[in-house]
Each structure stands twice: as C-alpha cells, then as structure tokens.
Amino acid sequence: MQTLELVRDDSPNHSGFVMVYVTCPTEQAAILARRLVTEKAAACVNIISNVRSIYRWQDKIEDDNEDMLLIKTTTSALNKLSELVKQHHPYELPEIIAVPIISGLPDYLNWINASTEANTTDI
C-alpha cells in the first residue's frame, strides 16, 4: 500500500504541485473546467456548487452564489492555466489563487505531472 509523502521541490522527476482556486458563475464552471483539462493546463478540476461569496467590489458589498473550481496542476503549467482563465472567465478580475501541495500519494502526483503540459514562461 502506497503512503503519502512530502513533495520535494528539487525532485528531478516532477514540477511543484499546486491547487488553484477559481470562483465563477455556475453556468460557466463546467465549460471552463473542461477547457483547462482539454488544454492540459490542469489534470483535474472539481466543481463545488452553490458557494456563497460575500466580497467588496468597486466599493460595494456583493453577495453572490458561485461555483468553486478546485484545480490540480503543476507550477510549470500555472501560467498557461492563468492565461486560459483570464481569456475565458466572464469576470473582469477572476479569482486565481494557487497554494502548494505539500503532500500526496506519489502515483496521484505523478498522474498530475503526466496530465499537464509545462509552460516555459517563468511564473
């Protein structure tokens, strides 16, 4: 049985791994998720429906129902992912927040690495 292991940033066999959070209108979530996976900017996107977001935008307090995309990718594919989100997201300023994955099942992390395409542009 495989156990979780800490991800080493200096490992030669994979890029760093990140989870990216993006909120969007419900009607756009599956379209955007499918595009990210098709373009190999992400290995997997989970869609969490009915997320309530309360935030300040243009000096007003907004209260919206959205979907949350949980996107698994590599740091080397992050620029590509970010550009695709900015191009195809309906918001003027989409949420794109990446957090490092510090541990994971090695086979799963290898799958993320194999399922994404590196972008040669530095972050």
Description:
- With 123 residues, the chain is of the alpha+beta class.
- The chain has helices spanning 26-38, 78-88, 106-115, and strands at residues 5-6, 17-24, 44-57, 60-74, 97-100, 103-104.
- It has a single domain (5-115), classed as Alpha-Beta Plaits, CATH 3.30.70.
- Strands 3-4-2-5 form a four-stranded antiparallel beta sheet. Strands 1-6 form a two-stranded antiparallel sheet.
SSE inventory with pairings:
Elements (H helix, E strand, L loop, with lengths): L4 E2 L10 E8 L1 H13 L5 E14 L2 E15 L3 H11 L8 E4 L2 E2 L1 H10 L8
Antiparallel strand pairs: 1-6, 2-4, 2-5, 3-4
Number of domains: 1
State Rg. Answer: 15 Å
- According to DSSP, the number of beta strands is 6
Q: What is the beta-strand fraction?
A: 35-45%
| Average of the residue pLDDT scores | 89
Helix content: 25-40%
Secondary structural class: alpha+beta
Number of helices: 3
Shape: elongated
Topology as H/E string? Answer: EEHEEHEEH
CATH architecture: 2-Layer Sandwich
- CATH topology, which one? Alpha-Beta Plaits
| Termini gap | 36 Å
Largest sheet: 4 strands, antiparallel
> Which consecutive residue ranges, at least 5 long each, have pLDDT under 50?
none
Biggest β-sheet: strands ordered side by side in the sheet: 3-4-2-5
Q: What's the CATH class, please?
A: Alpha Beta
